[in-house]
Amino acid sequence: MSRQGPNVPQVAAPISVCDRRGGAVADGNGPTLRQLGEFPMIDRLVAGRRQAAGVTVGPGDDAAVLIAPDGHVVVTTDMLVEGRHFRLDWSTPHDVGRKAIAQNAADIESMGARCSAFVVAFGAPPDTEASRAQELADGMWQEAGGLGAGIVGGDLVASPQWVVSVTALGDLGGVAPVLRSGARAGSIVAVAGELGRSAAGYLLWHKGIGGFDDLRRRHLVPRPPYGQGIVAAEAGAQAMTDVSDGLLADLGHIAAGSGVVIDLAVDQLRPDIEAVTAAAAAAGVEPLSLVLSGGEDHALVACFADAVPRGWRVIGTVADGTPGVTVDGRVWTGSAGWQSFD
Amino acid sequence: MSRQGPNVPQVAAPISVCDRRGGAVADGNGPTLRQLGEFPMIDRLVAGRRQAAGVTVGPGDDAAVLIAPDGHVVVTTDMLVEGRHFRLDWSTPHDVGRKAIAQNAADIESMGARCSAFVVAFGAPPDTEASRAQELADGMWQEAGGLGAGIVGGDLVASPQWVVSVTALGDLGGVAPVLRSGARAGSIVAVAGELGRSAAGYLLWHKGIGGFDDLRRRHLVPRPPYGQGIVAAEAGAQAMTDVSDGLLADLGHIAAGSGVVIDLAVDQLRPDIEAVTAAAAAAGVEPLSLVLSGGEDHALVACFADAVPRGWRVIGTVADGTPGVTVDGRVWTGSAGWQSFD
């Protein structure tokens, strides 16, 4: 919760309710971050929030303190940058908040853990309306609340564009974490959640194609299969990850980490292919490509020795061989997923 | 450790070793982040690092797993934005890395805890030289290593300017956290570490005044009194915080949180005043103002019932009254500290 001290010189920008920067438009509905100030803004963001039972010290001190019931803590972090990971002319601040929490939560789930808390660092231009920061926080609290977790601390700073950096903490409940390295030949690969939807939605937004409201929505706010990470761990999942970069790319990490070949069966991906076929046609792409290479749905994929638990469906098999991922026995020659610096 | 999936359209920038953006100049010494790619860059950042004993799962999976020995975990986060919190024409990437870790570590220390691990999200322009990201990580590891902790996970994304977001985790070792709310009338206020140095150094940099190398250095890399947070907690500190926004501002949080008046004695601040007197004269400011209002040194300030432990020096007293901070019994009318959105 600390702030920085004396620092680099700032260009003094006039306080105005009609400044425009980074999509955050002060339209007369209330004060900007500059007008309100950091501490009053933090007070607003924190006021009335209900912390989870395991939070010993919540926001308002130098750090938060949480119970770690089984003597371990799971931790992951993801940063979203405006213009790179979201656009404020597509997403509301509420959507951005939900997405930022969801993608971190999926990383915790994919270890076989439950989310216990989040901390959030948020940078925005000083002329951002305070109400928009509040909407962001509301979205975060809604998504986190669905997990039984809250936001226990954060930082609020000035930045040329919105930057949202979330760290999620998780609790394994006494079970061993499910790593990427445990897949064994002879096992099966299964998925919980959706594939290809976010990528389809992105293309629709990008090409300005209307309709397909569910898919376009799904790109803005993913729907990870919360709770299925623990289900998979309890069912003996050997290896697990979430689909953030694309099914092929993320299963590639399991294949590499485990030293195995994973083969996907297109027939078993039919439900996902069908869900994006019409949108893919409208956008002029192959639906299979969206399912194999589209990320950000934050489905969970895992390897099981034999049976898969309820909520999971089989999509492939694990074999010995040079580590990699094949599709119906062949190397996929289409797009392989998102790269950060392309 | 996950990355984002398909996303907003990017302007395709040419790969060039002479692009300039955000102070990160590719001068032919090696590949840029775009040329190297995210995963090979992460591999470089992670290679050869030695994780602490309590790290069950380190970098390379969806999340890290740490031991929380006493069944609690302390957590805090701070974000640094290029041009706002640091300048790459003043600081080396190594300096930025050290500062980012130090300011988070001080928040953990000020709870009476020790740092157990860090996660880092780093955003930078794609044409940033990979070697500069490596320097940033080296600085982080140096600072963290001095605390017996390491970096257990992170995220690496494209951003128009450098953004460094650190989350620190800490361990209380079975003692209760020291909050801001525990100060009682009749107690004494003490400090461990330095005051005013970073602010003096900032002014020297800002005004282009040479000499005073130690002070200018101190602005780039603070020197928190590592270990003194635990010392204070074990000595029965009632309340504690670190000086990130300025002594008056940060003690103001203790005064407000505890419902007390804190009075500082200028005579007891002499060592700090003397340390910045010559630089203050060169910069044309009052040295006392630097000591009272300069932040970012990340000294620790705490309230004790009577005696203070070794390494701490008394600077004031705690009394009943309308919550606030006075200086020699009077309200300070100078600058009160850093505000995020000024």
Automatic annotation (TrEMBL), chains A, B:
Entry's family note: Belongs to the thiamine-monophosphate kinase family.
Classification via InterPro entries: PurM-like_C_sf, PurM-like_N, PurM-like_N_sf, ThiL-like
Keyword DNA repair annotated: no
Single Gene Ontology MF annotation: magnesium ion binding
Enzyme Commission number(s) of this protein: 2.7.4.16
CDD domains per record: ThiL
Reactions performed catalytically: thiamine phosphate + ATP = thiamine diphosphate + ADP
Keyword Lyase belongs to the record: no
PANTHER family listed in its UniProt record: THIAMINE-MONOPHOSPHATE KINASE (PTHR30270:SF0)
Binding site for Mg(2+) 3: D62, D107, D242
Residues reported to bind Mg(2+) 5: D245
A Pfam short name: AIRS
GO annotation (BP), single: thiamine diphosphate biosynthetic process
Residues annotated as binding Mg(2+) 1: T77, D78, D155
Keywords, comma-separated and alphabetical: ATP-binding, Kinase, Magnesium, Metal-binding, Nucleotide-binding, Thiamine biosynthesis, Transferase
UniProt protein name: Thiamine-monophosphate kinase
Organism the protein comes from: Mycolicibacterium sphagni
Function: Catalyzes the ATP-dependent phosphorylation of thiamine-monophosphate (TMP) to form thiamine-pyrophosphate (TPP), the active form of vitamin B1.
Binding site for ATP: G154, D155, R180, S244
Residues at which substrate binds: H85, E296, W338
Residues involved in Mg(2+) 2 binding: D78, D107
Ranges for domain PurM-like N-terminal: 60-170
First-tier enzyme category under EC: transferase
